[in-house]
Design a protein that fits this description.
The protein is of the alpha+beta class and 361 residues long. The protein contains seven helices and 20 strands. The longest helix has 10 residues.
């Protein structure tokens, strides 16, 4: 397994470490998942997300190439803004969901998932053959942290210099310094809360982590709380809710697909805008907990399957994302939990979202 800059700190602070896509990562620290989840919803949670990939594509053909490799439309955002979208395979399946930050008209920062650090780069290199651009993989030279929650802004303002956080909109970014060290500051996150993601030089990461973790409002958090927070926010997880066999429209993510943009994009011709199944949200009655791979039933027959499910710490109810056959979407549904059909109401995600920053234009 590979280690991040934070391993020694994790070991010294009661982290329960697991193998996550080949990375030695904490599920939680001594306080536990529920406490970390609650801290992020009410104050501020600090996450080490350095296992995720980072690359910069720049050069004369960087824009045209990024447009072709990515499903969303980079022409619709200004420099200083970001977009969510997908890398697709030739069958329209989701290789990865990514965020691209438009640094200049010829320079783009890509943030990719941990499971895609190699596959995404290989795919992009194949597509870029013969193009006049440069692709720099930054993953090993930088670290990525996330400070999320209603107090994240106030905490970060104590330490960030050379950048006005109030002028960085949601899905926007800026550059500043923390204790004199450079930081790429992104107003994005995976929790449904206001907050920031920070890319810093890997040698500066221990200092920045220690500084933020020492603040009284801040609770260090692991993968467990990150998963429960993102599911309450209705955000898909690649490998659970979307994968290379899943197309964006069946995942309810067609809004991040711009098929009419100039030049199109790789995989567009294979997309089916009217799929036979759809990813939906379900809220269960009582105290039942839907788990991944539990069957969704309709009229006593199998209608789909749960891809992500938890007992929501915020709502005190079972919630899930599940693929369900189209013909069952307007009928009563239930989740089969150990042989019992527990009624489930179709719910449009998010269940919890507290983002107050204005969106970047």
């Amino acid at each position: 397994m590979r280690d991040t800059f934070c391993l020694k700190w994790d070991q010294d602070h009661g982290a329960k470490l697991v193998d996550f896509h080949g990375w030695n990562m904490p599920v939680s620290y001594a306080k536990g998942i529920l406490a970390e989840h609650e801290a992020t919803r009410t104050s501020a949670g600090l996450f080490n997300i350095s296992h995720m990939g980072r690359l910069r594509i720049q050069g004369p053909q960087a824009y045209k190439f990024s447009q072709y490799a990515f499903t969303n439309d980079l022409s619709k955002i200004n420099i200083g803004s970001a977009l969510y979208g997908f890398l697709l395979n030739a069958k329209g399946g989701i290789i990865d969901d990514v965020i691209i930050y438009k640094e200049a008209n010829d320079r783009f920062l890509w943030i990719i998932n941990a499971g895609g650090r190699e596959t995404d780069v290989e795919h992009l290199k194949r597509l870029s053959t013969g193009k006049d651009l440069k692709m720099d993989v930054l993953s090993d030279d930088t670290a990525l942290l996330a400070l999320q929650g209603p107090q994240a802004d106030a905490v970060l303002k104590r330490w960030v210099k050379d950048a006005d956080l109030d002028r960085i909109p949601y899905f926007g970014f800026g550059r500043g310094t923390i204790q004199g060290k450079g930081a790429f500051i992104m107003a994005t996150g995976y929790t449904g809360e206001d907050g920031y993601e920070l890319m810093v030089d890997v040698k500066d990461a221990p200092m920045v982590w220690e500084l933020l973790a020492s603040q009284p409002e801040v609770t260090p958090c692991g993968l467990g709380a990150r998963d429960s927070l993102r599911l309450e926010a209705g955000l898909p997880l690649h490998g659970n809710d979307i994968d290379e066999a899943t197309q964006p429209y069946e995942a309810g993510l067609g809004w991040a697909v711009k098929g009419d943009k100039e030049g199109g994009f790789f995989g567009r011709e294979a997309l089916n805008p009217n799929p036979s199944r759809k990813l939906i949200g379900l809220t269960l009655e009582g105290q039942a907990i839907p788990r991944q791979h539990y069957k969704v039933v309709c009229g006593g027959r199998e209608a789909g399957e749960v891809t992500s499910g938890i007992f929501s710490p915020t709502l005190k109810k079972g919630i899930a994302l599940a693929y369900v056959k189209g013909e069952c979407l307007d009928k009563p549904l239930a989740v089969d939990i150990r042989g019992k059909a527990v009624p489930a109401a179709v719910t449009r995600p998010p269940w919890v979202r507290h983002v107050t920053k204005a969106k970047a234009k």
